[in-house]
Amino acid sequence: MAAGARGGRVGMALLGGLIALLFFLPLWWALAGALRSEQETFRTLSPVSLWTLIPGQPTLGNFASLVHGGFGRAMLNSAVVTAATLVVGLAICSTAAFGLAVLRFPGRTTVFAVMVVSFLIPFDAIAIPLSALFRDFELQNTHLGLVLPGVGNGFAVFLLRGFFLGVPKELAEAAHVDGLGWWGIFWRIYLPLSKPAMVGAGLILFVFQWQAYLWPLLIAPSPAMKVAPVAIAQLSGERGADFGAIFAGAVLTALVPLLVLLFFQRYFTQSLSGSGTKG
Question: How far apart are CA 171 and CA 174, in angstroms?
Fold first, then answer.
């Protein structure tokens, strides 16, 4: 029995390693494409061989062309917009989740149900009419226009609410007896206990905003307001595509969330395991 269990664990480990390799290969291929010339990239595509994944003559020229082409400005715009979305979004989502989890008011279940349905609707389905509304309010080509759609994330509220429901109600009741109001209970009791959930919600907000393409394309067409995904897409145009620079831009934009997720993955796992267990 012990040998069978050990064999099962080995099999699962091998399967997990194979799946991880399949996810890793596209990232490695993009890195290889960023480190070689466009001619070498196409020359190694057919037939596929080991040299498809290994640059023959590595070069940093593609990254240099990005820097001189203004891609750094786009990365900075993405960083500013994402950071603002994180700060404002966590404040809004955490207070909304606290209200839906702890406060008792008429229609609470209905509000939560509407919120759940809202994050099941793809954002791309409402992006075009929403952009027209934002232009009416003169929010085009502004950081506020880029940030606002990302601050109210239904999945982040859902995650935080599930975690807040797991906090013993006796803590809030004892705080009430001591004269603490709802804001004090939220700030002094629930927030300190919800670090994993806050990190998980923050990662959701971060990924949503960092990889956004359609919304920035619609609401911020100005070159000065370009974000990284839009800047990468614009490397391909009527006169051709700079595939080396595209690969380099993809590597740079993927590297930031990859490092963030690797650093906070433990908290993200804890937030998922501690949410959604109560309703």
Answer: 5
Nearest to 53 by CA among 22, 29, 76, 83: 29
- CA–CA separation, 61 vs 48, rounded Å? 24
Question: Per residue in 96-109, pLDDT tens?
Answer: 999 998 888 888 88
Instruction: Give the per-residue pLDDT at 4.
Output: 63
**Domain positions in the chain:** 1-59, 70-273
The answer to whether the beta carbons of residues 178 and 253 sit under 8 Å apart is no
126-131 — which CB contacts under 8 Å span 24+ positions? 127/214, 127/215, 127/218, 128/218, 131/215, 131/218, 131/219
Q: Which CATH superfamily is domain 70-273 in?
A: MetI-like (1.10.3720.10)
- Are 251 and 31 a contacting pair, CB within 8 Å? yes
17 by Cβ neighbours in 10 Å (0-12 / 13-18 / 19+) ranks as: exposed
Could you tell me the pTM of the whole model? 0.83
- Is the C-alpha dihedral spanning 207, 211, 216, 221 positive or negative? positive
Task: Give the integer Cα–Cα distance in Å for 217 and 205.
Answer: 19
The average pLDDT across 10-28 equals 84
- 241 sits in which H/E element: strand 240-241
Helix (H) or strand (E) holding 187: none
- Give the containing element (helix H, strand E) for 260: helix 243-273
Say whether pLDDT at 174 is over 50. yes
Nearest to 153 by CA among 198, 208, 107: 208
